């Protein structure tokens, strides 16, 4: 459109060099002559602005006079003038103007130039200019401009943007107005900008942010997160109603979930910047405006409703819900609820709005809380949340024992009402107030201002100025928190009585410790009293606890019974544990498990608090005592948190939790179970944690139960144990799947698909583990995996190590490049012809589990170098219709360890040409038999694992013995460094056995071979064996020597594998006598194979 | 300016590989390589034509925000295409590709088109990463590959446009849900007036010469 450059060449006398001062002067001239934007000149203007950016950057890098001219002529003011004109093509010009500024600020390297650019406040004028933000292009360039500026912020440049005297910070306040913009990239830019601003850590600027903008910004942020969640909930409900969700709504759900995660990560990023003042405001808003009134509240509603009839505390359920939330509000706010200004207002509102209080379904709430605990680790938030979930009970509300909770909430002076409600002012309005003439008593936020930090600080005579002056750096906050003990100590004690949270955090938050010590007054004498009493109580209790296991068994049922009585008083925890009931389906249970998992693994949650779930009752008392001792010597905030008040010792729900998890596992062992694999895996994981207790030593008592479970799972899998080929493949694949991809709960909770009711059909696109099996095949897979999961639990609890899985131990495999002693082994000569026509000559050898193609070793007669090793089990054999001498073989990579689950790698797919059709048939037969045998063997192993009747107990023998090895010696080497004499003694008999029943096919048909195996091939038939038998003993030594000298040419892989049953270069030791015997019986089998050939 | 679709791109890769220069080179071709001037920008937009349709590309550079997990996360999710850039004269930038790719795959929409770019192809004498290596990496991970030079503008145009073509094809195949703006694709304001608009825009995109931002 306006792209013609014709004007360039015209009469303006443009200097030829585009990068020169002259050129800038010329452009300046253009700007002067075109002060009014019009249809006719806007092309010219755009082009000039573009050139200006280029010249300035060139000047910045090459010629400082260019920049001087730009500043001298005050060219930024032209920019402003152009911008302020409202005319036809203004957005067109504005976009270029913004892009020129972007380029300018992005590329300027010279700091002085940057300062000059910023110094005359034009940039701030541009920032506050009301562009036409309805134009998405303008919006995008504008927000990029702000973001680019924010990346330039540091302790020096901040002063160009933030004016301490006028309390003005347009860059920040203008940007956050777009925090909820419909365009995602704009929202992201705003978030980036805020984070860039916060991390500058300029004390005065942060104070401004905290006092003037934090409350409005965070309350709006939190409000929109909440609204978002309501939308998500609606989406879930909607989907749940439809029998099967449409593709589109699942996409929407995906986006909503991802958006929530984005919010949480953003909040976590802010919290991780560790700016105490900011974190406190954010924590407060998050807890009081969102997490408690929406997330936690949604947990109560259902359980409390059910509770209503039976509860001795609350008869009317509506009342009880209200009572809980209201009491929680009072508790969270601490003493300050008495303050009249806020007393009446919230209460009043509460009653009127009680009926329509927003809430989400329990499922969504559990899911969201899991995400919170998975992402956010800021102590005060997660700890308070965890405390509310685990500890708060109805009696707390009834007794009004606010003092207990007080300890957990640092922001007791809160003036943020506990309610999910819309901020009273839109962010824009609130910010207008902040930026206008400052009065500290703006009614809407008088709370946060007059009662908040300002008063606190002034009341303890802590002039803000003084704070920053008393510290060397501009950032008193970060400094103070890192100084901790020494210089700020006086300051701290001064503040503490007044309960300024920043001060407390300074004291409690040791550097780099994101601990949940949210401003608990640890030196308080009151809490010390608690401590002492508790200890005494605990000691008394300890004496009563039954100590023998017999007594324990008796008490287990009563224990569970008592715990389930106790849990009636803990509405939130009860909801979670009740959700674990899978008798109908595991929809809710999965989320409850996620939440428990996230809770337990969150670093910010105090471990002692978790003892509620993880410690059996008797251990709690003992461990509490220990910690009591610990805390008396070094009082810390942590121990206080979970220290119960004197009358109620910490109640454990460990037994109840385990019984619930047990029930899930039990259910999943039923053929028609409605428990998904992911649910099972998660409950098994949790069970392991819960059964191990705090000390980790208590797991043994659960072993019998675990064993029973294992037996049940084996029985389930046994139903599918058939001797068809596919079961073995399935079994191995599933094993690899389970061992390769351990559950990642964080990823699980990113998947919106689990929010939909459990489905069966694979056509939903939901991963197998996250849905129910469809059809017999999947039921078999499910049964196998269930078995693996439960077996793993059993092994871990009993402390046994895995000896039977995976089925094919990688160790006995010959590796490519291994040098094998093939004297007197079965070898079939063949030519391998590949598709592309390449031709190779090899000898084919077959052992128990593998097919090996070897090339003769040039150095030692009768030895061969393995060139290709594939598994017999997966071998595909096909005859050739035209040429009876040929076979078509597809050789797969052996399944080794976890890599077996990869799509089976084809090592070689080629035509094998043998000398004649007899050889070809022999090879075919041998391979086919070998394949069958190797599969049968594995099936037997599985049979033993699954305790299929008729299978003997797992033998100690090695599972595979290579064919061409001395079978007796092919044993697992458990210890190294055996005595030489013993080795030799053991080896001799085996050498003898090597010769048994081995037929050697060694043909000399190709010319290539003759050069290598000239001598050996001559005796390559049976007559050769007596000779080599007689040579057996010396040969051993030769071989060993060869190994010892570790020929560079023949790398011997087996040597370095500790537990190999290397077929050839075996060092053995005396401990293996049992296996020696046990391996005997299977020898005839192998003989059998050979004899058929 | 009217368009049929708007595609959002992100540019990822180590610092100093020339991401913002590529961006500026594409969106504002006038910045010709003279006097060793390295110049870049973090955002830009440009109109192109594919299959006779006006398509607007919005390109967001993600530089300087790596410190914040929430930011990188969201960026990936909002984009329909990504240019994964390394510097052929610095092997370490090539070695980090796997990490970048893992990140991208984890956070992005599964349909996001990723193009691998080996930048600074003009510096042949200082080359550390062979073109074949780049090709092999791309093949292995199913990416489109190209070597570019932001300096000489070689292949820059192609890199962005080929990515757009691939996205466009995916839309035609119905892989992308175009009604979902979270995918980084937006349908333009009703382009029934396509006659006039596309005439003007077409000239801009086709001519491309000065055509920065419309």
UniProtKB/TrEMBL annotation, chain A:
Keywords: Autophagy. Residues 251-616, 649-948 form the CLEC16A/TT9 C-terminal domain. It comes from the Eukaryota. One of its GO terms (cellular component) is late endosome. Residues 443-454, 1043-1081 have a biased composition (Polar residues). The keyword Cell membrane does not apply. Residues 49-198 form the FPL domain. Residues 431-441, 1024-1040 have a biased composition (Basic and acidic residues). GO terms for biological process: autophagy; endosomal transport; regulation of autophagosome maturation; vacuolar transport. Belongs to the CLEC16A/gop-1 family. This is Protein CLEC16A homolog. The lineage of its organism: Eukaryota, Metazoa, Ecdysozoa, Arthropoda, Hexapoda.
From TrEMBL, chain B:
GO terms for molecular function: GTP binding; GTPase activity. It is found in: Endomembrane system; Golgi apparatus. GO terms for cellular component: Golgi apparatus. InterPro entries: P-loop_NTPase, Rab_GTPases_membrane_traffic, Small_GTP-bd, Small_GTPase. Pfam families: Ras (PF00071). It comes from Spodoptera exigua. This is Ras-related protein Rab-2A. Keywords: ER-Golgi transport, Golgi apparatus, GTP-binding, Lipoprotein, Membrane, Nucleotide-binding, Prenylation, Protein transport, Transport. Belongs to the small GTPase superfamily. Rab family. One of its GO terms (biological process) is vesicle-mediated transport. It is a lipid-anchor.
């Amino acid at each position: 459109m306006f792209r013609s450059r014709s004007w360039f060449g015209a009469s303006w006398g443009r200097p030829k060099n585009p990068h020169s001062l002259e050129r800038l002067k010329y452009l300046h001239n253009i700007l002067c002559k075109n002060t009014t934007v019009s249809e006719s000149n806007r092309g010219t203007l755009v082009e000039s602005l573009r050139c200006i950016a280029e010249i300035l950057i060139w000047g910045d890098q090459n010629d400082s006079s260019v920049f001087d001219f730009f500043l001298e002529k005050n060219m930024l003011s032209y920019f402003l003038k152009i911008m302020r004109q409202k005319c036809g093509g203004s957005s067109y010009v504005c976009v270029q103007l913004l892009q020129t500024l972007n380029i300018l600020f992005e590329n300027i390297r010279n700091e002085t130039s940057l300062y000059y650019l910023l110094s005359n406040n034009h940039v701030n004028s541009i920032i506050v200019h009301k562009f036409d933000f309805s134009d998405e292009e303008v919006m995008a360039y504008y927000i990029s401009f702000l973001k680019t500026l924010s990346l330039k912020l540091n302790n020096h440049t901040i002063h160009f943007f933030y004016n301490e005297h006028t309390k003005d910070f347009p860059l920040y306040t203008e940007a956050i107005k777009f925090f909820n913009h419909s365009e995602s990239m704009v929202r992201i830019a705003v978030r980036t900008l805020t984070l860039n601003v916060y991390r500058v850590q300029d004390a005065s600027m942060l104070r401004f942010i905290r006092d003037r903008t934090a409350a409005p910004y965070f309350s709006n942020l939190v409000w929109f997160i909440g609204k978002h969640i309501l939308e998500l909930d609606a989406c879930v409900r909607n989907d749940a109603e439809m029998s099967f969700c449409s593709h589109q709504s699942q996409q929407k759900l995906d986006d909503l979930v991802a958006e929530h995660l984005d919010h949480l990560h953003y909040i976590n990023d802010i919290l991780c910047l560790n700016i105490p003042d900011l974190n406190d405001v954010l924590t407060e808003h998050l807890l009081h405006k969102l997490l408690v009134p929406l997330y936690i509240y949604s947990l109560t509603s259902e359980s409390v409703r059910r509770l209503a009839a039976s509860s001795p505390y609350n008869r009317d359920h509506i009342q009880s819900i209200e009572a809980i939330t209201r009491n929680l509000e009072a508790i969270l706010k601490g003493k300050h609820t008495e303050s009249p200004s806020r007393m009446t207002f919230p209460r009043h509102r509460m009653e009127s709005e009680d009926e329509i209080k927003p809430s989400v379904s329990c499922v969504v709430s559990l899911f969201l809380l899991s995400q919170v605990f998975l992402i956010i680790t800021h102590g005060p938030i997660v700890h308070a949340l965890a405390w509310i979930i685990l500890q708060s009970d109805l009696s707390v509300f009834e007794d009004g024992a606010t003092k207990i909770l007080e300890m957990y909430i640092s922001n007791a002076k809160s003036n943020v009402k506990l309610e999910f409600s819309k901020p009273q002012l839109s962010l824009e309005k609130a910010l207008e107030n902040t930026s206008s003439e400052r009065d500290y008593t703006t009614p809407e936020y008088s709370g946060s201002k007059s009662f908040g930090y300002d008063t606190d600080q002034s009341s303890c005579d802590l002039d803000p100025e003084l704070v920053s002056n008393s510290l060397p750096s501009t950032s008193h906050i970060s400094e103070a928190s890192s100084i901790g003990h020494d210089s700020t100590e006086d300051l701290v004690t001064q503040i503490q009585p007044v309960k300024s949270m920043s001060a407390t955090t300074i004291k409690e938050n040791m550097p780099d410790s994101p601990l949940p010590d949210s401003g608990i007054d640890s030196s308080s004498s009151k809490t010390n009293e608690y401590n002492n009493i508790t200890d005494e109580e605990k000691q008394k209790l300890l004496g009563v606890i039954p100590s023998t296991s017999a007594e324990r068994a008796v008490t287990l049922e009563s224990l569970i019974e008592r715990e389930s009585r106790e849990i009636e008083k803990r509405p939130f925890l009860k909801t979670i544990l009740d959700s674990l009931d899978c008798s109908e389906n595991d929809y809710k249970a999965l989320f409850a498990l996620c939440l428990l998992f996230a809770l337990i693994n969150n670093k910010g949650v105090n471990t002692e608090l978790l003892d509620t779930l993880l410690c059996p009752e008797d251990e709690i008392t003992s461990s509490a005592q220990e910690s009591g001792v610990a805390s008396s010597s070094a009082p810390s905030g942590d121990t206080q948190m979970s220290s119960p008040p004197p009358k109620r010792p910490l109640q454990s729900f460990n037994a109840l939790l385990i019984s619930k998890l047990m029930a899930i596992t039990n259910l999943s062992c039923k053929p028609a179970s409605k428990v998904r694999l992911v649910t099972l895996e998660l409950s098994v994981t949790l069970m392991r944690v819960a059964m191990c207790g705090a000390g980790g030593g208590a797991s043994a008592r659960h072993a019998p139960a675990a064993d029973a479970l294992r037996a049940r799972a084996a029985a389930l899998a046994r139903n599918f144990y058939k001797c068809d080929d596919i079961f073995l493949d399935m079994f191995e694949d599933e094993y690899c799947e389970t061992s390769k991809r351990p559950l990642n709960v964080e990823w699980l909770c990113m998947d919106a698909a689990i929010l939909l009711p459990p489905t069966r059909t694979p056509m939903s696109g939901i991963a197998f583990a996250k849905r129910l099996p469809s059809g017999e095949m999947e039921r078999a897979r499910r049964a196998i995996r269930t078995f693996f999961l439960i077996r793993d639990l059993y092994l871990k609890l009993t402390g046994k190590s895995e000896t039977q899985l995976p089925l094919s131990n990688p160790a006995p495999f010959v590796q490519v490049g291994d040098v094998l002693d093939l004297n007197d082994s079965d070898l079939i000569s063949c030519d391998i012809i590949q598709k592309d026509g390449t031709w190779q000559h090899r000898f084919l050898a077959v052992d128990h589990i593998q097919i090996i193609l070897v090339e003769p070793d040039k150095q030692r007669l009768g030895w061969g170098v393995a060139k290709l090793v594939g598994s017999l089990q997966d071998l595909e054999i096909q005859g050739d219709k035209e040429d009876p001498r040929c076979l078509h073989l597809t050789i797969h990579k052996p399944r080794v360890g976890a890599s077996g689950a990869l799509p089976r790698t084809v090592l070689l797919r080629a035509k094998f040409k043998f000398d004649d059709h007899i050889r070809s048939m022999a090879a075919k037969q041998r391979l086919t038999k070998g394949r069958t045998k190797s599969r049968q063997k594995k099936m037997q192993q599985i049979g033993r694992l699954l305790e299929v009747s008729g299978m003997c107990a797992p033998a100690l023998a090695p599972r595979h013995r290579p064919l061409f090895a001395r079978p007796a010696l092919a044993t697992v080497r458990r210890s190294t460094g055996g005595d030489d004499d013993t080795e030799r003694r053991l080896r001799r008999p085996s050498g003898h056995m090597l010769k048994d029943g081995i037929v050697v096919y060694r043909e000399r048909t190709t010319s290539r071979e003759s050069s290598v195996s000239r001598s050996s091939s001559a005796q390559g038939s049976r007559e050769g064996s007596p000779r080599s038998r007689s040579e057996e003993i010396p040969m051993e030594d030769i071989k060993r020597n060869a190994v010892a000298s570790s020929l560079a040419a023949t790398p011997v892989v087996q040597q370095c594998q500790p537990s190999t049953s290397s077929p050839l270069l075996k060092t053995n030791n005396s401990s293996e006598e049992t296996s020696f015997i046990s391996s005997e019986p299977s020898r005839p089998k192998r003989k059998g194979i050979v004899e058929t050939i | 300016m009217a368009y049929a679709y708007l595609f959002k791109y992100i540019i990822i890769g180590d610092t100093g590989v020339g991401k913002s220069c590529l961006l500026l080179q594409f969106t504002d071709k006038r910045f010709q390589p003279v006097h060793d001037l390295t110049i870049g920008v973090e955002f830009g937009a440009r109109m192109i034509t594919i299959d006779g349709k006006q398509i607007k590309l919005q390109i967001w550079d993600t530089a300087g925000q790596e410190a914040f997990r929430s930011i990188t996360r969201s960026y990936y999710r909002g984009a329909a295409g990504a240019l994964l850039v390394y510097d052929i004269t610095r092997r370490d930038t090539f070695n980090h590709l796997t990490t970048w790719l893992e990140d991208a795959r984890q956070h992005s929409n599964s349909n996001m088109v990723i193009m691998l770019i080996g930048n600074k192809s003009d510096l042949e004498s200082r080359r550390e990463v062979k073109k074949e290596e780049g090709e092999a990496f791309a093949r292995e991970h199913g990416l489109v590959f190209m070597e570019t030079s932001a300096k000489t503008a070689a292949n820059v145009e192609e890199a962005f446009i080929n990515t757009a073509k691939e996205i466009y094809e995916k839309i035609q195949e119905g892989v992308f849900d175009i009604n979902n703006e979270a995918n980084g694709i937006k349908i333009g304001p009703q382009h029934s007036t396509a006659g006039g608009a596309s005439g003007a825009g077409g000239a801009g995109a086709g001519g491309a010469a000065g055509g920065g931002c419309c």
